[in-house]
Each structure stands twice: as C-alpha cells, then as structure tokens.
Amino acid sequence: MMKKIVLSSALLAAATTAGAAEFRLPQFETTKLPNGLTVLLMERHEVPLIAVRAVVKAGAVNDGPQAGLANLTGDAILLGSTKHNKAAIDEAFDFRGAVLAGGGGVEQTTVQANFAKADAATLLPLFAEIVQQPGFDNAELDKLRARKVSGLKQAKESPRQVAGNYYRSMLFGPGAYANPPGGTVGSLQALKQDDVKGFHQRYFRPDNAAIVVVGDFDPAAMKRQIETLFGQWKAEGTAPQRADYGKPLTDKPRVWLVNKADAIETTFLIGGAGIARNDADYVPLQVVNTVLGGRFTSWLNDELRVNSGLTYGANSAFAPLSQAGTFSMSSFTALPKTEAALDLALKTYDRLWSRGIDKATLDSAKAYVKGQFPPRYETSEQLAGLLGDMYALDIDRKQIDNFTRDVDSLTPEKAKALVDKHFPRKNLQMVLVGKAEEIRKIAAKYGEVTELDITADGFKPTAK
C-alpha cells in the first residue's frame, strides 16, 4: 500500500468506556445509487475530520495467472487521474496535511483518503477522479513496478515476511486464495499498462463497489455530493460474480520445507483450516485463541519464549476470508533447536484438548479481548475500514453489535466445544523455512515433505 503524509487524528467516541456494559457499532446509513453504487455514511461530529474509502470487490483472487495485478492496480490509481497528474494530486493532499492511500488485498481493492472537514470540497472531487478515471501514467507505472519487484526480492531475504505466502499456497493449492497478493518477481515484471487498465475496467464499476464516508459532515449535503461525483459512473456488461476461491487442503499431514541455504534460524507455521470472516463463532474464537497464542502471556509464548528460551516470540491466529480461512501457530528458532521448538509447540497446542481452559484463564482472556476490541474502532479511519470490510466480506453488523454478549457468554464448556469444532487437530499442515540440509530429517517426522527453494520465483513448488 502506498501512503502520503499521515494526518494526525483525534480519537472518536466509537467505543464504550471500560465500565460500560455493551459495545455497539455506531449507526450508519446505507443507500444505493441508480447506477448500483453502494454508499455508506456514518456521522461522527466529535472532531472536524472525514475519512472516505472506495471499496471494490476485487483482489488477488481475481488476478488469474497475472499474480499481483490487483495490488499493482490499487497502488497505480494514486499515480494521478486523466485530468491531474501525480504531482498535482500529491500537492493537493500534501499541502493540506491529508492522507491518500491505495492498495489491493486478497478480496478487495481500496482507495482511501483522510482530510479535514474544511478540505472536503477540494479533495473529494480529486478522490472521485482517481477512482473513476485514473491516468496510469506509463513512466510512473514503470517506477512503481520496479519498486515492487525490488521489494519482493528483499522480502525473500527475511523468511518471516514470506512464510505466510508459502502457507496459503500450500493450503489452498490451485484455489484463488493461494494467489500471493503482492505477486511474484516474474509476474510483476510481465505486467503492462494495458493489464492495469484492463483490471480497472473490469472490476472498478459502480455495481461492484462502495463509497464509505465516516466523520464530520452533513448527511444530506454529503449524499448530494456523492451523487454528483459518482452518479455518472457507468458499468458496461454484466457485473463480475464471485467464484469459489478454494478450501484448505488438509486430507493428510504435509510439510513444505523451504530451503534457505544461508539460514541460521528455522521459521515455522503449523495449523490448517480456519473460519470465514462472517462465521458466527468469530468473536468467541478470538477469546479462545488469546489463551493459546493471542497475547504475550499466552500458552505458546510462555512455553516457547519465557520458560524454554527457544524463541523471542510465538503466537497463533485465525486468518479469515469471505469463504474460508486458515489457522496457524507461528514462531522461529535457532537452527539446532528446530525439533525442540516444533515438538514444544505441538505439545502446548495439545493442551487445548488434554487440559482444556479453566474458568480463571478464560475470564482473564475475556477481559483482555474486551479491552482490546473496542479501541480498534475508535477513529473515523478505523470505522471506515470496518464498514469497507463489512461490505467486501459480507460481515453482518450483528457480529459487531453482539461482541460483548458473545464474549460474556463464553464458558469453559463452550470454549471446549469451539476447540473441538474449529481448531485443527489431525492432519496438521506445516511450513518450515530454513536450511534444508540440517532439518530435512526433522521435517519428515511431521508429514509428507515437499521441498522448495526460497530463491525460486513465487511460492509454489517448481514443476518437474
């Protein structure tokens, strides 16, 4: 994601205070323009700031064989419009201390801006321009692509930056969820201006997008301005339809051993299938995962860092998407300690079933999650991001509004049921990034081994 100057913003009262009984999402209005564009408006008058976001239902899952196309398109939108070049756009936002950013993720591409209320009349039309009529200047696009290629090459020098790409590729195989959002060196180098223009034309259309506005504005006036700026946006042909992006492959225990010949550490991820973002158990699962590996005092961090000194940190997380998701435990350790760290991680993980979570531990995790969750949705920018995710990933607002209820109602018995239902226990999937010569025999303990080399382009095994 490309960023401009960061606009400092005050906290908004989107969350309840610590002593309040319930967290609820502030009210917002949803409308649809005649051209199919969804408009989400949330008033927040505490400070004179506005966050606006264009959300398009297209991302890496739509790249096809051109990995990184959505991400490149999302960033390239910031290179100027057909009416104003990049320098003019940059000057307009930078002069006012505003933020302009863009980027493509797994399932959505976004363009976002944060600015003072007084600057809305000037900056919102420029924002509308680059969303609907980006210039995609070829010289600027070449420079952007070169920076991205350089970044991908550098990332492979740091296993912790790329291990997740190998993990998703392993789990989703031929499915679109396996596509690396940032692309590969080869795929990016092959992308041309026409590819970016084509992606924009196919997916940036009003019936496949939403405009989210959160902040200090008059709703009637803002609605008129949005209609004026986006009402003439036209769509040609049938709107793109969501396909099946794939499910995790977990029919047998597998290990992808990614060789980094000069590695002195082993970076690892262990897990399997997770949940979709709109799963009814999303909130209570955050509590259960907090116990396992979701905070500094978690079981995994205590065992692998504090008690054994095998690593500087260990964690676990669910990574949900609109149709599926993954679960993983992750850490890194010195090469000679690889087997000990893996065995201890697995032993600690098994405590979810062998010992379960007692009431005191669960109550502590519940308090932690209740303290952490509301502050994620305090600023206009955070709330705009949430509304954008709700649109792109089909998240029901009940999941947010019922947050407190779902946390408070969690008991050790319910926690056990969640563990049995959602945490993978059999056929665990594992990615190891390290010196294969030293850990090849260790890897074979945990499943069927497939070897890759980190110097090879991309994140899949090389075809033989």
Automatic annotation (TrEMBL):
It holds the Pfam family Peptidase_M16_C. Residues 192-367 form the Peptidase M16 C-terminal domain. Residues 1-20 form the signal peptide. InterPro entries: Metalloenz_LuxS/M16, MPP/UQCRC_Complex, Pept_M16_N, Peptidase_M16_C. GO terms for molecular function: metal ion binding. Residues 40-162 form the Peptidase M16 N-terminal domain. Keywords: Signal. The keyword Zinc does not apply. It comes from the Bacteria. This is Peptidase M16. It comes from Pseudoduganella armeniaca.
